[in-house]
Amino acid sequence: MTAQELTQETVVETLRGSRFLMLTTVAADGSLLAHPMTPQEVTDDADVWFVVSREGGQADALRAGGAVNLAVSEAGSWLSVAGTAEFVEDRAKLDELWDDEVAAYFEGGKEDPAVALLLVRSESAQYWGVPGGKVAALAKIVRAKVTGTRPGGASGTTEL
User: What count of other Cβ atoms lies within 10 Å of the Cβ of residue 25?
Assistant: First the structure.
């Protein structure tokens, strides 16, 4: 991906191709809390569904304010997606997204009172990276370290 390629479709593809996303929330006291999360679904609009717990610091931060950030990192490339998060009550959607991996986190299954659906509505995305993919990025980073130069790169922003 290069800055010129940062489109909504590219953001969706990157999010869908990531097993884990870092979800950063803002707590009531203004501190930032980041957690690795597994996206259950990424829509064509770049919105992301998660199954989360209603309990704990992350849930408290989500209730305190909806502003969140999703981050993806690969060798030489970073994607940051700003958005808002909301808890959603939708039994049919929970049934659709529920799988064995999610079940491992909730002793009471789908009926566990801690189970919640979280929808992150993406608003904008920023990208920074070294063109050429993972292998080229790693080579450029290593070469820059050896030569004492900067690896260079590109960045871009898009509204979602």
Answer: 23
Q: How far apart are CA 13 and CA 6, in angstroms?
A: 11
How many domains does the structure of the chain reveal? 1
C-alpha to C-alpha distances, 61 to 21, 68, 119, nearest whole angstrom: 17, 10, 14
Q: How many residues does the chain have?
A: 160
**Dist. CA 157–CA 123, nearest whole Å:** 11
The vertex-92 CA angle with 118 and 125, nearest 5°, equals: 35
Model confidence, pTM? 0.81
CATH of the domain at 104: 2.30.110.10
Residue-wise pLDDT for 25-70, tens only, equals: 998 888 898 999 999 999 999 999 999 999 998 898 898 878 999 9
Q: What contacts 60, CB < 8 A, 6 or more positions away?
A: 27, 28
What residues make up the domain containing 18?
3-159
pLDDT tens per residue across span 106-135: 999 999 999 999 999 999 999 887 655 555
**Quick check: 142 and 135 in contact, CB under 8 A?**
no
Write down the pLDDT at residue 29. Answer: 87
